[in-house]
Amino acid sequence: MLPDHLQVPEALKTHPELIKRGVILEEPLNIGSVYTTNAFPPPRFVVKVLSPASEEEAVITRLQRDRSSRNHLTPCEIIRSDPTLLLMPAVCNVAWPMRRERSFFIKLCTILKVFRQIAEGIDHLHSLRIAHLDMCFGNVMIAAPHVEREHPGTKAGRVYIIDFDR
Question: Which residues does the UniProt record annotate as the domain Protein kinase (predicted)?
């Protein structure tokens, strides 16, 4: 059995809004704040507990209203409860498409496409006067084909910027 700090809190396991959506959290991705469901059966979700002290909910709410194609926010749902939760599709680490390609040329093209999308997303955030403040490898994700099948709001090959906690 795992130590308590490595388990999903009981309050999240029994959260009525998550139960209503069929979301059963299995393990932490970031202890104390981010949890995921099992990969099987799909679809796989990630739930983040939003800090009331952060501006993340306000930033996400603002970006959800923005329909620009340059917006690289992960499709998500804010569950306003105590605590406020962010329900998102489980997308892949941005390195995923590079790992599956063998050809150097295709890898290079893929890296350039990913970089272009990252730059587009950051430029768009800045045009809205939003600074990410923690742009790093772990906060850039990409949707794989299976993610698009499981979560129709995502698009395979699209880069998503996550974690707007300041």
Answer: 1-166
Contact of 29 with 36, CB cutoff 8 Å? yes
| pTM of the full structure | 0.91
Torsion of CA 122, 124, 126, 128, to 10 degrees: -150
* Structural domain of 37: 4-161
23 assigned to some structural domain: yes
Query: Which two three-digit tokens encode residue 37?
Result: 């469901």
Count of structural domains within the chain? 1
pLDDT digits (tens, 9 = 90+) for 99-117: 888 899 999 999 999 999 9
| Nearest-angstrom CA–CA distance, 24 and 9 | 12
Rg, the chain, Cα only: 16
Q: Where are the beta strands (DSSP E) in the chain?
A: 25-30, 34-37, 45-49, 77-79, 85-89, 92-93, 140-142, 159-161
156 in any annotated domain: yes
Average pLDDT, the chain: 94
Q: How far apart are CA 83 and CA 105, in angstroms?
A: 47
In a domain, 100, yes or no: yes
Rounded to 5°, angle at Cα 160 from 96 and 57 = 140
166 in a domain, yes or no? no
